[in-house]
Structure to design on (214 residues):
């Protein structure tokens, strides 16, 4: 309902309210006792005397009659948590020594292949996909790695002077290595700037505290 319509209806009900016939109750009211709001509004001494009277002469209600059959759901969670630590320890030892024997689980679905290599697109372990025997190559010496990373494509004059064969260098790999080195140097430079700013802020805070304290 829009705002203007509800406003008009409220004004109409306020000016000329609708005259309805008196309400006729056909059901019998049920005695529910004192309402919760009235109980909270009672002074403290009345609640104290009411509690003493309930302790001395409690109201004897009729026994509860259940027409439905109860279902055994085992021990409730609240009752289980109320036990002492020794009860859970004994139960754990009993399950460990003589576990409960249950019926075997019957599976209706077919098992999935190892790692799902036939039906799923994901990163797989190479050892589960290769059927050939594993071959472990020897590691490249560290000195040879640094030399291969820093060697550039030699000029024809240098090759002619030394008489050695030209070493093939992958230009894309060399560019990626240089870009990686530049990124590392820039990150270290940013780290130094941040550490300097943090140290300056800490010194400023300490000087500010000591000046106002002493």
């Amino acid at each position: 309902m829009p705002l203007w319509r509800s406003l008009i209806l409220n004004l109409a009900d306020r000016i000329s309210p609708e005259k309805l016939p008196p309400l006729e109750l056909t059901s019998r009211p049920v005695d529910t006792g004192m309402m919760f709001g009235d109980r909270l509004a009672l002074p403290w001494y009345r609640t104290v005397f009411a509690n003493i009277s309930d302790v001395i002469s409690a109201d004897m209600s009729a026994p509860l009659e259940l027409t439905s059959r109860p279902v055994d759901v085992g021990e409730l969670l609240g009752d289980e948590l109320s036990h002492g630590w020794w009860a859970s320890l004994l139960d754990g030892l009993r399950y460990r020594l003589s576990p409960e024997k249950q019926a075997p689980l019957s599976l209706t679905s077919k098992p999935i292949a190892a790692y799902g290599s036939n039906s799923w697109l994901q990163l797989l372990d190479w050892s589960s996909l290769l059927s050939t025997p594993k071959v472990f190559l020897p590691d490249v010496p560290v000195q040879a790695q640094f030399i291969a990373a820093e060697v550039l494509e030699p000029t024809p004059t240098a090759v002619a002077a030394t008489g050695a064969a030209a070493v093939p260098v992958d230009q894309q790999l060399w560019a990626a290595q240089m870009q990686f080195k530049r990124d590392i140097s820039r990150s270290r430079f940013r780290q130094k700037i941040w550490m300097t700013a943090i140290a300056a802020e800490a010194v400023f805070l300490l000087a500010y505290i000591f000046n106002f304290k002493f």
